[in-house]
Write a structure and sequence with these properties.
- The structure is a single chain.
- By secondary structure, the protein is of the alpha/beta class.
- Helices cover 46% and strands 15% of the residues.
- It is built from six helices and five strands, in the order βαβαβαβαβαα.
- The protein has a five-stranded parallel β-sheet, sandwiched between helices.
- α4 links the parallel β4 (82-84) and β5 (102-106).
- The structure holds D-ribose.
- D-ribose (RB5) is lined by residues 7, 9, 41, 64-66, 68-69.
- The site of D-ribose has 8 residues, from α3.
């Protein structure tokens, strides 16, 4: 199950991405926003991040105008590794290297066609499980003190 959410800036692209997920046969839970009216991106960033952090959803997709505010918000939730991606290389690398569990995109940055390919890449790329990447991910967590 994929959690998805956006503010008004990402509303239209989110509709397209939900249709795309349906075509893929991918189940998702929609956390809003429910209308294109102006709203606040932290609401949806937090809802989706908490759904992923709790294990209710396996991964998440977040969209705002730039992808920046909503990704900053999601990354405040412990256990979340939210990657803002505007290209497929980054989406592949963040899954392989960072085991990113939320994809963020900017609807004013990427078009629908590219956004769909970024989503496919993000969902279809497994974590590498390489020792060095496991080590680095553990160093992101609070409590790690660089020597
Ligand atoms: C809304 O106008 C815009 O600020 C928001 O969607 C996002 O880009 C914030 O980072």
């Amino acid at each position: 199950m994929i959690a998805i959410g956006s503010d008004h800036g990402g509303y239209e692209l989110r509709q397209e991405i939900m249709k795309h997920l349906e075509k893929r046969g991918q189940e998702y839970k929609d956390f809003g926003c429910d209308t294109p009216a102006s709203t606040d991106y932290p609401i949806y960033g937090k809802k989706v991040a908490e759904a992923v952090a709790s294990g209710e959803c396996e991964k998440g997709i977040l969209i705002c105008g730039t992808g920046i505010g909503i990704s900053i918000t999601a990354n405040k939730v412990p256990g979340i590794r939210c990657a803002l991606c505007g290209d497929c290389f980054s989406a592949q690398a963040t899954r392989e290297h960072n085991d990113a569990n939320i994809l963020a995109m900017g609807a004013r940055v990427v078009g629908v066609g590219l956004a769909e390919k970024i989503v496919d890449t993000f969902l279809d790329t497994p974590f590498s499980n390489d020792e060095r990447h496991i080590r680095r991910i553990s160093q992101i967590e609070p409590g790690y003190e660089p020597k």
